[in-house]
Amino acid sequence: MRSGVPKSGTERRFKRHLRVRNKISGTAERPRLVVFRSLKHIYAQLVDDSANRTLATVSDLGIEQGKKGERAAEVGKLIAERAKTAGISRVVFDRAGYRYHGRIKAVADGAREGGLEF
């Protein structure tokens, strides 16, 4: 990183994400639920860090109706549904350096509503 130069928001978020990733990791029994938020869309995926595999992924690209927050909650429900079909009931939530607020919280609430524990 550049020293003495103000860092962009993306660089600061990436550093926060690395700090969080040093503390948590996903396993086959309890994978990591990672959330990525762009300006228009939101993505969620289940990752097994011990095997370096992505187990399931969902995005709001196919969801047409609703506001961004409503689509985020739907993404949470869909990832919970995919996790259930894969035999996963417990996950570790990785907010990826974002604040636990708004669409990130909506994904978490939707996943809990869908039956995931974290």
Brief sketch in words of this structure:
The protein has 118 residues and is of the alpha+beta class.
Write up this protein.
- With 118 residues, this protein is α+β, with helices and mostly antiparallel strands.
- The protein is 37% helix and 19% strand.
- The chain contains three helices and four strands.
- The protein has helices at residues 9-23, 68-85, 103-113, and strands spanning 32-37, 42-48, 53-59, 92-94.
- Strands 3-2-1-4 form a four-stranded mixed beta sheet.
- A hairpin with a 4-residue loop joins strand 1 and strand 2 (42-48).
- Helix 2 (68-85) runs parallel beside helix 3.
- It starts with 8 loop residues before the first helix and ends in a 5-residue tail after the last helix.
Keywords, separated by commas or semicolons:
118 residues, alpha+beta, four-stranded mixed β-sheet, 4 strands, 19% strand, globular
Estimated structural class: alpha+beta
Q: Can you give the helix content as a percent range? A: 25-40%
Query: Would you report the number of β strands?
Result: 4
Catalogue the unreliable spans: none
Our estimate of the beta-strand percent is 15-25%
The average pLDDT score comes to: 92
From the N-terminal CA to the C-terminal CA, the straight-line distance is 33 Å
Rg, Å, rounded: 15 Å
Largest sheet, strands/sense/barrel: 4 strands, mixed
Helix-strand string: HEEEHEH
Largest sheet, spatial ordering of strands: 3-2-1-4
Spatial shape: globular
How many individual helices?
A: 3
Give the secondary structure arrangement, pairings included.
Blueprint: H1 9-23, E1 32-37, E2 42-48, E3 53-59, H2 68-85, E4 92-94, H3 103-113
Parallel strand pairs: 1-4
Antiparallel strand pairs: 1-2, 2-3
Helix pairs in contact: 2-3
